[in-house]
Design goal:
Number of strands: 42
Structural class: alpha+beta
Distance between the termini: 51 Å
Number of helices: 15
Strand content: 25-35%
Shape: globular
Oligomer: single chain
Helix content: 10-25%
């Protein structure tokens, strides 16, 4: 770290071999983020300015940029300097002056905390940048404190504000904006648009005024990824410079990009926020001395394009999450729900499934929804008490759990802790203040009430439930689901609904932390109608995460292939639900979707023929051989991120010993039910897959699964292409591409 006075004012500079950072204080005392970029790969630049922590940040020859203030904060009574919905032009944010800084460095992180103050209102801010050493990722958060004598009402606070999106020397015409649409059953659909198209050139010189426009995405309510993933990226197609971000919050968020008042290549901006007044009904009054901290966000910077930035974020995600043995072992999980029992379990139905799952190689067996509802009752609106059904399990649920253990597996149960069904007795047992309320009424959504984890009775009730399941029933795995989206939040504590929702979201995370402190060996899956809460507020705590509820095995590949852009591979749970009426190609196709992720096995495998069961067991055996590598793997996409109806889809994982790839040939994707039958094509077809990082390598390509499925592979070291021939549509295979061992 270097901090020194220059002709323009104070500068704080830092870099390592992956990322450079410069904060400049101008003549008015306003601290601005003047530089944030990957460290150049040019060794002459590094030799000239130094390349290690504590040395000057290399500037890559770009012109000095004024930069943006370190934050934007809209305060009631002050508003914006320029009318609009852009979070870079607030009055208070643009006059908060530098008041000092602190630096800290440990074995894994460097931290810079910059203090700011607005003398007019007394509002103070601490902007904290944490850098993963050598990782190319910066984490940012802001803490606001009312240091004045009067109450102050905040309407929005950025977690991060920065510019120069196209990178040093880049322009909007060079840059491509990327984001991911995320719907129920259709998760992780990445989109791309020219940044200049998203932010049209208005010829500001003619108008004598700045733009009011921006490109913005918002997630509302309790589903953090109910419409979009809480991510985005800008890729410079000419230079490869990529800025990628994620918002780490299990609730509402907003991000936007635009052009600010400056000129030249650095005049773009990125604002990342949690909940706001305009978008989320979040409006918080701070009394003198009170503080508020924003949700954390992370930014990855790479000169290696989109995949390089994903690699940085993947390593960062592993660094911030709670350590757990699950992330190293990657056990195979059988879940009885998908296309199988579908919320209607019983002793009679489960016992043969348990035996078949163990024979296939599963190590955990999770009984999904319905285990608490009596026969004839809906599993949906009776949730809340979490007591095993007596009619479904005449000899007690312990009979099934004991059978799971006797087969060498860990038993698991599904639970939805944040809701109570309107027909559950718990709805009358807990006080009204324990539920989400608006306008004096309980919030009801699809036959459920929503619990508020800020209330002690809520936490006490769920603590008793979890302790009963873990200590009394001996459950070692919990699938925690979340199937409703309750809108802006709760006014229970006489606050704005968005303030109540944020408080609940944070209280829920604290409850999960305490639960895992109390039961450190417990494995917990995060689920939210599939992938409706794909965020690293949850995934830094939960061990794995459901990617989708998609029941059509032909439509799952683009979801499974794109998932590692948002989730570390060893946390991305993908359903594989082979059925006895499927042929061998279809069984292998469905199983391949999970083989570079976490296997969520399901399906009526107890009704399969012996040959079909062997085909399932073969897939699980192949997975167990490669899973130690997946725990540290980095994803890549030989055909690019998939479009929803692509006939060919491919996902790769870079590992120490080479690469693994899964290739799917789907054929035509129609709307017919998937009860067997072909996808509109038959006969062999081939596809050449570029594997650029192994070009020039003498390597051996091998089909790991299905071994007798008829797939053929051929590697060309000169072109860096792997040619894959698949026998039918649909069909798929798992491939290992490893360097050829030296002769002798």
């Amino acid at each position: 770290m270097v901090a020194e006075e220059t002709a323009a004012g104070l500068e704080i500079r830092w870099c390592d071999d992956a990322l450079g950072l410069r904060v400049a204080v101008d003549e008015q005392g306003v601290a601005r983020l003047a530089h944030l970029a990957p460290t150049p790969r040019d060794p002459t630049i590094n030799d000239r300015v130094g390349a290690g922590p504590g040395k000057e940040v290399p500037m890559s020859g770009e012109p000095e940029a004024v930069g943006l203030p370190l934050l934007d904060v809209v305060v009631a009574g002050s508003g914006r300097r320029w009318s609009g919905r852009r979070y870079c032009e607030s009055v208070v944010g643009n006059r908060m002056c530098y008041a000092g800084h602190i630096e800290r460095e440990g074995a894994q992180w460097f931290e810079l905390e910059v203090s700011l103050e607005d003398t007019c209102t007394g509002l103070r801010a601490s902007v904290t940048y944490q850098v993963l050493l050598g990782g190319g990722v910066l984490r940012s958060r802001v803490r606001m404190t009312n240091g004045g004598a009067s109450p102050l009402t905040l309407e929005s606070v950025t977690s991060f504000l920065g510019g120069d999106l196209a990178g040093p020397g880049g322009s909007l015409d060079d840059a491509e904006l990327r984001w991911a649409e995320n719907d129920w059953l259709a998760e992780a659909r990445w989109q791309a648009r020219s940044l200049r198209d998203a932010l049209p050139d208005l010829n500001r010189a003619v108008h004598g005024a700045r733009s009011r426009g921006r490109f913005a995405l918002t997630s509302e309510g309790g589903w953090s990824s109910g419409t979009y993933l809480p991510m985005g990226a800008v890729v410079n197609r000419r230079s490869g410079h990529t800025l990628m971000w994620q918002i780490e919050h299990n609730g509402g968020w907003h991000w936007q990009v635009g052009e600010h008042a400056g000129v030249g290549p650095g005049s773009t901006y990125l604002a990342l926020l949690g909940p706001t007044d305009v978008e989320h009904h979040w409006r918080l009054t701070l009394q003198p001395g009170e503080s508020f901290e924003t949700v954390p966000v992370a930014l990855a910077l790479s000169q290696e394009g989109f995949e390089g930035a994903v690699a940085c974020l993947t390593s960062y995600r592993r660094a911030i999450r709670r350590p757990h043995q699950d992330h190293r072992d990657l056990p195979v999980i059988f879940n009885d729900y998908m296309n199988t029992l579908m919320g209607d379990p019983s002793t009679e139905r489960l016992l043969p499934l348990v035996t078949a799952a163990a024979r296939a190689g599963a190590e955990y067996f999770c009984i999904d929804s319905g285990w608490y509802a009596e026969l004839g009752e809906s599993w949906w609106d009776t949730v809340g008490a979490w007591a095993p059904s007596k009619s479904r399990f005449p000899n007690g649920i312990g009979e099934v759990l004991d059978h799971i253990r006797a087969e060498g597996m860990v038993p698991g149960l599904w639970i939805e802790p944040e809701v109570v069904g309107v027909r559950s007795p718990v709805a009358q047992m807990l006080p009204s203040e324990a539920f989400f309320m608006r306008q004096g009424e309980r919030v009801v959504e699809q036959g459920r009430y929503h619990l508020d984890f800020c209330h002690p009775s809520t936490r006490q009730h769920l603590d008793k439930v979890i302790d009963f399941l873990v200590e009394d029933l001996g459950v070692g795995y919990l699938k925690m689901d979340y199937n409703i989206n309750v809108g802006p939040g709760t006014e229970t504590a006489s606050v704005a609904a968005g303030v109540g929702l944020l408080a609940h979201n944070r209280a829920f995370l604290e409850w999960v932390d305490a639960l895992l402190d109390r039961h450190p060996g417990l494995t917990i899956e995060s689920c939210s109608s599939g992938g409706m809460r794909t965020d690293y507020a949850l995934l830094s705590r939960f061990q794995l995460h459901s990617t989708s509820d998609q029941q059509d095995f032909l439509r799952y590949p683009p979801i499974a292939a794109a998932a590692p852009a948002a989730i570390a591979p060893e946390q991305a749970a993908v359903w594989a639900y082979p059925q006895p009426e499927w042929d061998d190609d279809q069984i292998a196709f469905g199983l391949c979707s999970a083989l570079l992720a976490r296997v969520h096995l399901s399906g009526h495998i107890d009704r399969m023929s012996a040959a079909q069961q062997r085909l399932v067991a073969e897939a699980i055996s192949a997975y167990k051989k490669i899973r130690p590598d997946l725990a540290t793997a980095i994803p890549f996409w030989p055909l690019g991120l998939p479009a929803w109806e692509d006939r060919w889809v491919a996902l790769g994982m870079r590992v120490r010993s080479g690469s693994y790839l899964v290739v799917w040939h789907r054929g035509h994707i129609g709307n017919e039910p998937r009860t067997g039958g072909r996808a509109g094509l038959s006969g062999p077809a081939e596809m050449a897959l570029p594997v650029a990082h192994m070009r020039g390598a003498h390597a051996v390509a091998e089909v790991l699964y299905p071994v007798l499925g008829g797939a053929a592979v051929d590697w060309s070291s000169s072109t860096g292409e792997l040619t894959v021939t698949l026998p039918n549509a649909p069909s798929a295979c798992l491939i290992r591409l490893a360097p050829e061992p030296p002769a002798g």
